[in-house]
Specification:
The protein is built from 17 helices and eight strands. With 348 residues, it is α/β, with parallel strands linked by helices. The two termini are 31 Å apart.
């Protein structure tokens, strides 16, 4: 059997596993074919072939792996959100792609401001479009889909407040949480403290991108000052033993995204990713895809990388899938059902 065949055989093992995805961005999940269709329909000037378009919206082997380059892909992606139909389509396809990869439960996060900007759609309309498409696709594909609204650190606190109130109004429709994302290296989270506290009081769960491109201290800040129940990435937590102890004590779940961390320049190589150090330190790590289209991966690839490259035992991976379900932003009854189903399917 050739090396390529071995990889395929091994990847199929991970494809077969039932999966839980806690950290996937809608805006990082667009299919290339869909982008070409939308460009044609709306007269967007982009390269006419898939390969050349790919260089603008996906990480390439020859790219510099920096967070500026990674975030730069979103600048092109923002050109495509031209109509309600486009937003319906990309939401539906994101759920279809997850289902194809055997994802059983997914929290899909989306940034209403990003989706609204190209055509200045009202934020409440954008939310309604994503909600209705996610609900339809969830039923069709037999995947439980919940939504998280995301706001960026470089945007104004006023926008974040508007998004928070709209999200709170839609808790009954499957919006379960709120997220702070974007350029952590250059923009502080302090202006958003009050907004996230109010969002939590209104019934939204809180997850914060922290300790990815910024220091480990940002993880402490997210937990203590913003009320984060989960941390997006959080790989710098190991910088400080006292923050590790805090996160361990709170059982804070870490939404780790291995390939994305490598491609955005957090670590120089895949092999130096600290997933296993975090796991060995007793942290509640989960494994996620972040932006599957930008990174050109699936969640199966991330599971493969965790086990084959970073040497996580498959038994530990299965436990982490259940841990992700236990960290899901859903009611206890629904959670119990999901956990039981996964334990049965994973033979735990």
């Amino acid at each position: 059997m050739s090396a390529a065949d071995r990889v395929t055989a091994s990847l199929n093992t991970y494809r077969a596993l039932p999966k839980v995805e806690l950290h996937r961005h809608l805006e990082g999940s667009l299919r290339l074919d869909t982008m070409l269709d939308v460009a044609q329909q709306h007269g967007i000037t982009i390269p006419a072939d898939v390969l050349r378009l790919s260089t603008l919206v996906q990480i390439q082997e020859e790219d510099k792996f920096t967070f500026q380059n990674f975030l730069g892909k979103f600048n092109t992606l923002r050109l495509f959100y031209r109509s309600p139909d486009v937003i319906h389509r990309i939401t539906r396809e994101a759920v279809e792609d997850a289902a194809k990869d055997n994802v059983k439960y997914m929290e899909l996060r989306f940034t209403p401001v990003a989706l609204s900007r190209a055509e200045r759609f009202p934020l409440h309309d954008v939310m309604d479009w994503v909600i209705s498409s996610a609900q339809e696709a969830s039923k069709e594909q037999d995947v439980i889909v919940k939504l998280i609204v995301s706001v960026n650190r470089h945007e104004s606190a006023e926008i974040a407040e508007q998004v928070a109130w709209l999200a709170a109004d839609h808790i009954k429709d499957g919006i379960v949480g709120m997220d702070l994302a974007g350029n952590e290296a250059d923009f502080p989270s302090q202006p958003f403290y009050g907004i996230f506290k109010e969002a939590k009081q209104a019934g939204l769960h809180i997850t914060i991108h922290a300790g990815e491109w910024g220091p480990g201290y940002n993880v402490r800040e997210a937990i203590e000052e913003i009320g984060a129940e989960r941390i997006g990435h959080g790989v710098r937590v190991l910088d400080d033993e006292s923050i590790v102890a805090l996160a361990r004590e709170r059982q804070t779940a870490f939404e780790v995204c291995i390939t994305s961390n490598y491609q955005s320049g957090v670590f120089e190589s895949l092999e130096t990713h600290p997933l296993m150090e975090m796991y060995d330190a007793g942290l509640n790590v989960t494994i996620n895809s972040d932006d599957p289209s930008i990174s050109r991966i699936t969640l199966s690839h991330e599971y493969y990388t965790a086990c084959e490259d970073l040497k996580m035992p498959q038994s530990a991976l299965k436990q982490r899938i259940v841990a992700a379900a236990q960290a899901a932003f859903i009611g206890e009854t629904e959670k119990e059902k999901l956990v039981k189903r996964l334990e049965k399917d994973l033979k735990l």
